[in-house]
Every structure is written in structure tokens, then in C-alpha cells.
Design goal:
globular, 10 strands, Rossmann fold, 8-stranded mixed beta sheet, alpha/beta, about 270 residues
């Protein structure tokens, strides 16, 4: 039986916590219990989703503590078992581990799979470079052709998942997929988390999203004592030059995913 899903509109800056007793939500598998996984799970549980963590060590003390912190019916199992229990799968694990994990989760046909990873490695000069020719998301789609892979939710640090308002303004999340319905479903989840989703087009645009993610690694490989945080933010400023016929329209311009309404105030151009 298909589940009935009630979407609750949330503040883009503060997020929200609907009453899970009155809203039947999907089960979400969070594959990976590291820095991002342990932020996604508790927040999504607060929103009424049933969370199952997929871990290599589901019975470890650390994972059991995360399950207890998440509460609200959360559980943990092996990565394939978690993926099979879920309607939506969040892949919150790094490369190169992703290559093995994403090919061994079992049948993902019809499931929405959200990839938050960036396949980077250090080049000969120590700076980040892409580890794959295309993108992590495109490879995951190739390995799981029946899944609906969506790229997104990897362009900010985990503290923004924990507390969206800490950014001092709306944080926009680019998402890309070859499946419009999956993009729209993930966009609503992004919106519920207190963030602003935008449609970045087909899944091949994941390559550019992952390039944004790789920028975070630069101060780390430089061994800086401080890191940096940058935010991609939408604007409603429509200047005359934007309307100029400089480029052809995208082929899917009439079929773009519908994004939740935002609270952005339009600005006039200088």
C-alpha cells in the first residue's frame, strides 16, 4: 500500500518539527554515521520520518548512542539492510568507500537515492582534484539504474543541517537529477530542513555541484588553523541583461521541477 505523505511548510530559517503522530512519513535510510549522517538523522526524525542508520558497525557503542539520541523509532542495521528497509536513501559516506558501498546495497529500484558525496583526492601538488571523470552521482545512477538518484545536500557543513539559522540568512541547496518527481520530493525535504532548494537540471550537473563541495577541502589540505564556509544563495534581482537573448533556452525549461515557495524579498537592480 502506498503511503500517504503530508508535507508541512517550514520556516526557511528556523526549520520545523511537525507532529509525527499525525503524519505518516517515509522511512529514510541514512547510510553513514559520520559528520553529516549524525546531523541528517536527528533532524529528519524531528520532522516525522522514520530513520534507520546503515553502518558497518551497527552495534557499536557510538552508533547505539546516535540511535538513542535520534529517538522516535530510530534504528541501525547493516548498510544493505538499511537501504532495503527505506523508501529514501541518503548516501552520506566519502570516497573511495562510496564506490564499494553504492554497488552493494541490493535492489534500489524505485527508491530515491540522495548522494551528498564528493569524489576527490589529493593531486601531486597536494590540492584537491576530481577522482572520477564524471561525478559520484552519475556513477551511483549507473550502478543502480532502477533508482532515482538525486545530487544535493553536500554544499554546506553539517552545522547548517543542525541549525539553518546559524548561517545568518537563507542557504540555497542546488539539486540535480534525471528524475523530476525525485527532485521535487527531495526539494520538499530540503525545504522542511529550513533550506532553499533550487533545480540545477539533469544529473550531469552533479559534476559542478561536486566542484563546489571540493572547495571546502582547500584550507584542510593547506593545514590552516581555520577553515571557511561559503553559502550559495538565490536572488530575485532580475536585471535587463539577464533577459537578453545571449543563450538558447535549456531543453527542459518547460519541465523544470517545481520548488517550494521561498521567503526571498525581490530587490531592484542598480
Amino acid at each position: 500500500m502506498k503511503k500517504t505523505i503530508t508535507i508541512v511548510t517550514c520556516s526557511l530559517l528556523l526549520g520545523c518539527s511537525p507532529d509525527s503522530s499525525s503524519n505518516e512519513r517515509e522511512t529514510i535510510a541514512v547510510i553513514g554515521t559520520g559528520d553529516l549522517g549524525d546531523s541528517f538523522g536527528p533532524r529528519l526524525a524531528e520532522l516525522g520520518y522514520t530513520i534507520v542508520y546503515g553502518s558497518r558497525t551497527p552495534n557499536s557503542e557510538r552508533v547505539e548512542a546516535l540511535v538513542a539520541t535520534t529517538g522516535i523509532g530510530a534504528s541501525a542495521s547493516t548498510q544493505p539492510e538499511a537501504a532495503q528497509q527505506a523508501d529514501i536513501v541518503i548516501l552520506a559516506i566519502p570516497w573511495p568507500a562510496m564506490e564499494k558501498v553504492a554497488q552493494n546495497l541490493g535492489n534500489l529500484d524505485g527508491k530515491i537515492v540522495i548522494d551528498v558525496s564528493a569524489p576527490w583526492t589529493q593531486g601531486d601538488d597536494g590540492y584537491p582534484e576530481n577522482q572520477v571523470e564524471t561525478s559520484s552521482a552519475e556513477l551511483i545512477q549507473q550502478w543502480n539504474p532502477g533508482a532515482k538518484v538525486v545530487k544535493g545536500l553536500g554544499t554546506m557543513e553539517s552545522g547548517i543541517i543542525d541549525a539553518p539559522g546559524a548561517a545568518g540568512g537563507m542557504v540555497t541547496i542546488p539539486i540535480a537529477s534525471d528524475h523530476r518527481d525525485a527532485k521535487e520530493r527531495v526539494a520538499r525535504i530540503v525545504h522542511e530542513l529550513g533550506l532553499d532548494p533550487v533545480d540545477f537540471g539533469p544529473l550531469r550537473m552533479a559534476r559542478h555541484i561536486e566542484s563546489l563541495q571540493i572547495l571546502y577541502m582547500i584550507p584542510i589540505v593547506q593545514r590552516r588553523t581555520t577553515k571557511w564556509e561559503f553559502y550559495f544563495r538565490r536572488t530575485h534581482r532580475l536585471c535587463e541583461w539577464v533577459q537578453a537573448d545571449w543563450f538558447d533556452s535549456a531543453y527542459d525549461v518547460d519541465q523544470l521541477a517545481e520548488m517550494p515557495e521561498t521567503e526571498i524579498v525581490p530587490k531592484t537592480c542598480p
